[in-house]
Write a structure and sequence with these properties.
The complex is a heterodimer of chains A (521) and B (444). Chain A has a domain of 258 residues: Type I PLP-dependent aspartate aminotransferase-like (Major domain) (Aspartate Aminotransferase, domain 2). Chain A is built from 15 helices and 13 strands. Chain A is globular and about 80 Å long. With 444 residues, chain B is of the alpha/beta class. In chain B, 36% of the residues lie in helices and 13% in strands. In chain B, the strands form three sheets. A seven-stranded mixed β-sheet of chain B has the order 1-7-6-5-4-2-3, with helices on both faces. The N and C termini of chain B lie far apart (60 Å). Classes of the chains: A alpha/beta (521), B alpha/beta (444).
């Protein structure tokens, strides 16, 4: 076979039933794995010959090849550019994933994080050479403390779930310090999965609290469960139904009366930033997802950053390191000892001092908005969500009455008897050019559709979205709807993928074709 | 406000549609006592003003690239090709979320599949996940996994493990409730971990190259672990080393937890970095973190999805293998692109340059009167014993400015004379001259 027919046959292996020879469709280009494009003796870097020196690897030099493919720079750039074109992103469209706060990511923040004075700084440099970095961390801490009304903040947690771990550990340390061993943590049914997972990881039994008919914590049920064995409640506010916990002050009082701590999952802080200080709600501890409220990019699933604000009673147990003001400037406190007041610390949570790159971006975001702008962020986020609710509540089924906060929750009653599921509806949205909302979460309503538009969508953008969703909702009532929705999406680089097959026989890495054939025998 | 598209007219119109008199009315569920009137923070600023303020802060730091620089200790300064940063800043990567909808995130899923393959190849393991936060948290997760796999609750930590890694494991051990028996740092190399393994040991954690830069054959330790039903957990803080060294997977490692910062990612004052996690196929369902798997779509075409999610918190809640959700997405992309550019030849040559530079530097430092090199073997980092306290020397050299390395006393009491020095491809002959001269002067 000629090289060119081999090349075409490789294309066709991408899928039967393709209407083009290549399998490509205009701007959607089929792209093999890098491992299928390599050639021996090719590389994308030009490195000098190593200086002459004797080997001191202790006889442990690598014997065999690694198996990495060789590609030139143009091939690598094209490969990853093509892959990028198979992704939906905030930059390209409305991304209403509830609870994820997919807002615009300002590019100034990227530029700032890349300043050599921040980006090219080693975490173990002498303190005299990192004063600006410590100053930045101190300023970020000041903003976070001011916005939350809390006296202390731990910056090192790497993401929201890591912040939860930090928070629950500090709570346990505080309880242990007063000789008060408790065994249980209360978590509402509507909580993010990370909450019960975190509580369990810290050795606590998890007890669920039901929601009331208004989508809030059932205060009576909570009080019935509160006793001397409860270490903490983990509550998201605004909650994952997009509602403010209107009895939060009473909840806090009941929790504190039982000697327990009040942990708040701050994933939805975007709704209240600049308007409500969590300290005024009686919260003892809350993580803040810098990649949500403060717009550090989600990056396809990270990196995030999850600083945790702490009440007075928890502050002595904060993780190391701490940034402190010394006589000669800022200092990093890295070790537990009585002298520096660190003896109560839970210890270290992360390799170094935290997600500095995210700190720079978040501070740039805060300085750009200012106190006035951040309040406007909350206002517009809530206004946009309520506008979405107003535009959709007669065609989708809203789960709860009254104004929502930053996200609008619907359930699948509007799909009753249509044969269309929430998943089908979501996939049809993809064909219309939208990323689906969060689906089947929270678990407290059936077939949930949780939409968070964020404050960075324009009215025009929301009007178009509402128009499209209304039309889709209409379509679920038409003959043949079930089949039509079930076929979606049609216009994506891939149609629906077989997740069951992926889990049944996991293929988690590429292997050379020969090895694959042997493995199948 | 440049980031907020709504106009005053929009807001009025929208409130009319909603049927609310004001935005304040939408916040009616907030208790009166908790409505903050005004929060005392500076007002909004333009790009220019913010850039000026942050640049002034950045200018108070000494950037690694502006001085002779020999600092490692778990984070390494390498040259990252220009195309890496260009590609990761494409909005389709930068501003996308965790790939929950595979039809519109094949880009992310495919690079994660490539990443998992690269990590498995590099470490010599069978399977790798889609990343954890960093090397230290990956190590702690690995210990927790070893406990699950073996049903035992006591791990043994080599004294050569990075002290920060040990501390992160300690934190988890305290709160999860398992034992982590850390050995003291042993500069003379007599540590006998095999003797500490018994029927209750879940794993032995050993760093390769270790915290002082030493490289040792792990095969005897692997055998000793396996003889007692324990796992060998190998930590790698400088992943470029595996371009030159026999990978842990070929020496019997059961889990490899590593820091991937060295490939594709800058120093960033300690984060974000990228935790690498690899293991054997038979343990895959005990792994923490996300996994991407290959499958086919409704038309039979190859594609990728997140898979084996029943291990994870969003499905399993309190029974999950880890509470991790967001990981290091964009840092894995940087890693994957950089490693794709390097390829087999590039990585092995990069590793060879690093090693040769370090060998050169070790030779030159050893020639300074009073200075001895501790290591018999090393990759791009080694430890010297100085005739004076290392911390003071490092501070004095920083004034010149030269960043000479990291004194062991920064982490551990009782090792005042030890300095850990790294040399990557970014170190020039002139840098070495500067260090040697300055060190000679300060020891005089």
């Amino acid at each position: 076979m000629s090289d060119w027919s081999k090349a075409v046959s490789r294309f066709q292996a991408a899928g039967p039933g393709s209407e083009t020879t290549s399998g490509n469709r205009g701007l959607q280009i089929e792209e093999p794995l890098i491992f299928e494009q390599g050639a021996d003796g090719r590389t994308g870097v030009d490195l000098p010959a190593p200086p002459a020196a004797a080997d001191r690897l202790g006889g442990l030099g690598r014997k065999g090849a690694i198996g990495l493919p060789g590609l030139s720079e143009p091939q690598v750039v094209r490969h990853y550019t093509r892959l990028s074109q198979k992704n939906f992103a905030i930059d390209s469209g409305l991304y209403p994933l509830g609870s994820c706060t997919m807002k615009h990511n300002p590019r100034l923040n990227e530029r700032m994080a890349r300043l050599p004075g921040f980006g090219d700084l080693h975490p173990l440099q002498p303190e005299s050479t990192i004063q600006g970095a410590l100053e930045l961390m101190d300023q970020l801490a000041t903003w976070l403390k001011t916005l939350t009304g809390m006296p202390a903040v731990a910056l090192s947690p790497a993401a929201g779930a890591h912040g939860e771990l930090c928070g629950i550990m500090t709570i346990r340390a505080a309880l242990e310090a007063r000789g008060d061993m408790r065994q249980r943590i209360l978590v509402p049914e509507s909580a993010h999965g990370t909450n019960p997972a975190t509580a369990a990881a810290c050795g606590y039994a998890v007890e669920s609290i039901p929601a009331n008919a208004r989508g809030r914590v059932d205060l009576a049920a909570l009080k019935a469960k509160l006793d001397g064995g409860v270490a903490a409640i983990m509550l998201t506010n605004p909650n994952t139904c997009g509602l403010f916990e209107s009895e939060i002050v009473e909840i806090a009082e009941a929790v504190h009366k039982a000697g327990a701590f009040f942990y708040c999952d701050g994933a939805n802080f975007n709704a209240i930033v600049g308007r409500v200080r969590p300290a005024d709600l009686g919260i003892d501890c809350m993580h803040i997802n810098l990649h949500k409220t403060f717009s550090t990019p989600h990056g396809g699933g990270g990196p995030g950053s999850g600083p945790v604000v702490l009440a007075e009673a928890l502050a002595p147990h904060a993780p190391l390191p701490w940034v402190v003001h010394g006589p000669d400037g800022f200092r990093l406190v890295e070790h537990a000892d009585g002298a520096s007041g660190t003896s109560g610390t839970i210890g270290r949570l992360k390799g170094f001092h935290g997600q500095m790159g995210m700190f720079v971006r978040a501070l740039a975001y805060m300085m750009s908005h200012g106190g006035d702008g951040l309040r406007q962020v909350a206002n517009d986020a809530v206004l946009n969500a309520n506008y979405l609710m107003a535009g959709l509540k007669d065609v989708l089924t809203a789960s709860f009455e009254g104004p929502c906060m930053h996200e609008a929750l619907f359930d699948d009653r509007f799909l009753k008897d249509t044969g269309v599921t929430t998943l089908d509806f979501a996939k049809a949205m993809i064909d219309e050019g939208y990323h689906p909302m969060t689906m089947y979460f929270p678990l407290v309503v059936h077939g949930a559709l949780l939409m968070e538009p964020t404050e960075t969508e324009s009215k025009d953008s929301l009007d178009q979205f509402i128009g499209v969703i209304r039309a889709l909702a209409e379509r679920t009532r038409q003959p043949g709807a079930a089949e039509w929705f079930h076929e979606a999406p049609r216009y994506t680089p891939r149609r629906r993928l077989d997740e069951t097959a992926a889990a049944r026989k996991p293929m988690l890495r590429w292997r050379p074709p020969v090895a694959t054939a042997e493995a199948a025998e | 406000m440049r980031y907020l598209p709504l106009t005053e007219a929009d807001r009025r119109d929208m409130l009319a549609v909603i049927g609310a008199p004001s935005v304040d009315a939408l916040f009616r569920d907030v208790p009166e006592t908790a409505r903050a009137a005004d929060i005392d923070l500076p007002p909004h600023q333009g790009e220019l003003e913010v850039e000026r303020a942050l640049s002034a802060m950045a200018a108070k730091n000494v950037a690694a690239g502006s001085v002779p620089f020999f600092l490692g200790g778990g984070a390494y300064r390498h040259h990252v090709p220009a195309s890496v940063d260009h590609l990761i800043q494409r909005g389709e990567f930068l501003t996308s979320y965790t790939p929950y909808q595979p039809e519109v995130t094949q880009g992310t899923l495919q690079y994660l599949f490539e990443f998992q393959t690269q990590v498995a190849l590099l470490t010599g393991m069978e399977v790798a996940n889609a990343s954890l936060y960093d090397g230290a948290t990956a190590t702690a997760e690995a210990v927790a996994m070893a406990n699950r796999v073996t049903g035992r609750r006591r791990s043994v930590l080599s004294g050569g493990l990075h002290p920060h890694y040990r501390e992160v494991v300690d934190t988890l051990a305290r709160f999860v409730g398992f034992r982590a028996d850390a050995q003291p740092l042993d500069p003379d190399g007599g540590e006998d971990l095999a003797a500490l393994i018994d029927g209750g040991t879940s794993c032995v954690v050993v760093q390769y190259p270790d915290f002082l830069g030493r490289v040792r054959d792990l095969r005897p330790l692997a055998e000793a672990c396996h003889a007692k039903g324990a796992l060998l957990l190998v930590v790698v803080t400088e992943i470029v080393s595996l371009g030159a060294l026999t990978p842990p997977g070929e020496m019997g490692a059961d889990i490899v937890a590593a820091e991937g910062q060295s490939i594709g990612n800058g120093l960033n004052f300690g984060g974000p970095y990228v935790g690498l996690f690899a293991t054997r196929d038979r343990f895959v369902r005990q792994m923490p973190g996300r996994l991407v798997g290959q499958t086919t779509d409704a038309e039979g075409r190859r594609g990728w999805v997140l898979t084996l999610s029943t291990r994870e918190q969003h499905i399993r809640r309190e029974k999950a293998t880890s509470n991790i959700c967001t990981n290091s997405g964009l840092c894995t992309l940087a890693f994957t692109i950089h490693l794709s550019l390097l390829g087999e030849d590039g990585l092995t040559q990069l590793a060879a340059i690093n090693h040769a530079k370090a060998v050169q530097l070790a030779g030159r430092l050893a020639a300074i009167p009073g200075v001895t090199v501790l290591n018999d073997s090393f990759f791009n980092e080694f430890t010297v014993r100085l005739p004076k306290p290392a911390a003071a020397i490092v501070d004095r050299l920083a004034e010149r400015p030269i960043i000479a390395g990291v004194p062991v006393s920064r982490f551990l009491a009782g090792h005042d004379d030890l300095l850990v020095v790294a040399a990557t491809e970014t170190v020039t002959d002139a840098d070495m001259d500067a260090l040697v001269t300055a060190l000679e002067e300060s020891l005089r």
